[in-house]
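> @MW can you paste both from yesterday?
MW: sure, first one:
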Amino acid sequence: MATFLICILQYNKRKDGKYPVSIRVTHNRQPAYINTGYYVEKSKLSRNFELRDNLILPELLHRIENYEKKLVKLGISADKMTARQLADFVSAKSEMDFTDFFRGYIDGMKLSKKTIGLYNVCFNLLQKFRETVYLSDIDNAFLVSFLDYLRLSGVGKRGQQYYLVLLKAVFKAAVKKHRKTTGEFTEDAFEEFTIPEPPQPKKRNIPAEKIRALANFECGDKRMGFARDVFMISFLLCGTNTIDLFGMEKPKDGRLSYNRSKTAGKRKDNAFISYRIEPELLPMLEKYAGTEKAFNFSERYANSLNFNAKINDWLKLFVSELDLPADFSTYYARHSWATIARNKCGISKDDISLSLNHSTGRVVTDDYIEVDFSLIDVANRSVIDYVLK
């Protein structure tokens, strides 16, 4: 009966110093080799060039187990095959190359640049884990090994959870296409695998007196003054993110309206939101008026990422001055607004969700109920009065 063994062919060393991992099939005293798609550094090998990588060993042993099951089904027919024929048979892939599918899946996306970027990171991590992945390779053992790889690569718990969720989405799409193309059924690898829960997010809020102190701070440094103003603009608009301030259209009928970048392509309402311009916002709206946009931020910076990065850098200058958290950033405007609205002003969670332009609780009800943005106006006025008056 044929045997299978994980092996490293020393003479196949690549230019980057890594060695390809193969599975040797020995049949009728003849060897043949199956490329696993894995490459390892010499530090992952013993002196005798035996694999010592605990990340991929379990997955390869599981693969050999599947090869042996195929061999059993062949029965005596295997005796008439050469080692090469046998190796090709047990490793044959009737389905798609998942790596190619993943790449095409990203190329066909019509989502935000940020979301596409996250999918690209997930794809790159998968390729570093294993250069070529077929749909049938993805099972519980594969996912466990990939999760271990993410942990050992320094990816945090939230990142581990997020990238596995993205991988699951691509896997589901691949299964659907494969079934439609070939009629073959592929087991759901994620059915038995549990994606780890993300850690509780850190609360990024500061009390009203800190926001008041920030608003009244005498800024000798122009950078600090600009960063402070952007933070306050965000806060006075219920914690609007900088990416949305960057591209916000000019005011109309005393209101500032926009489609939230993060969720615009995912919701029926295109994530539309509208805020009344409060008196406290008017001076800054005039000070930073743009030629074509509400604010001139897009005229001062090449893109929203650069704009956000600079503002957050300069907000750090307030940390020692006002005894603020070390990671103080524009995120604190949004979190602080929501916390004050709920805990100090008694605003309902539904109205806070509406003010933050969240979709929670609105998916079904908004099909029947017209959105009343005056509820946001009332909530925002209450928070501003509590903090600044």
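MW: second:
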Amino acid sequence: MSTPFRLQEPVRTPWRLRALTLAVSIAACGVGCAPKQATMATLPCADEVHANPSAARAKFAEQAAKSPDDIAPQLCIAYAAIAQHRYSEAVEAATRALAIEKGNALALRMRAFARYRLGAFNAAIEDAERSLRSATDGEAYEIIGKCHLRQGDARAAIEDFRVWANLSGLVEARCWMGAAQWTAGDRAGGLKTWEAAELAAPKDPEPFIWKAGFLFRAGDRGAALEAAQRAVALEPASPQTLGTLARVQSWSGDASGAEATVKRLAVTDKIAAEKLQQSLQSQPTTEVETSGG
């Protein structure tokens, strides 16, 4: 399925999966108290994975060999593999975790996410749905919705993302819902959803980034440029917002404007600027970037 450039996982650092926090209950809780929540980001190994996923993965592989009945090292190996985009290895580690603790919701969601990124959409949906037997969590619906969207079932994805948005309150959930509405042919509905996201989080550039991509794809270059500029106004030094503006400028034929935007990014992030420049050079100006995210 051909998709506008904004249909991708928004990542602000190499390791962070912004849209995937995978909350699950992991501890018994007394009457009247809220259950503790476990997420990939709150795993005991999270800081190590963030600092050096390769070293962390090697360390926890050694621990797993010494303690084959301990689920914790397997979860950390899966997390490190996801951080390195080694999704097949993440699936293997999560599967080992499930062999230790059948039905562990965190392991199921980690495997679902990895399978989604590998394109095994039906298997990913199955894992995410299994995780819902333990806890009703928005991120399971996030994964299911993204799988449905990649399978071409935008209308099913709309409802998945609607549940995700209602459960999580995340602006990103609304942005994906708007994308699904637009893809299903309801452009007015998509724009309305993005505008609601703008009102809900007036300092977040995310809705404008989504709008820029879809509007450009629809041929409304002026509106796309305006959306990209508003995103930059909210986060002037962000590689994400400046990258969006540079792409819209480049695709619109404004090579000098795109070059100036890349130079602006280089002031604060030379590596991101170099990657953006390479992206612009390899991307035909008449095509919109697509991604498997």
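> thanks! The two ends are 12 Å apart (CA to CA).
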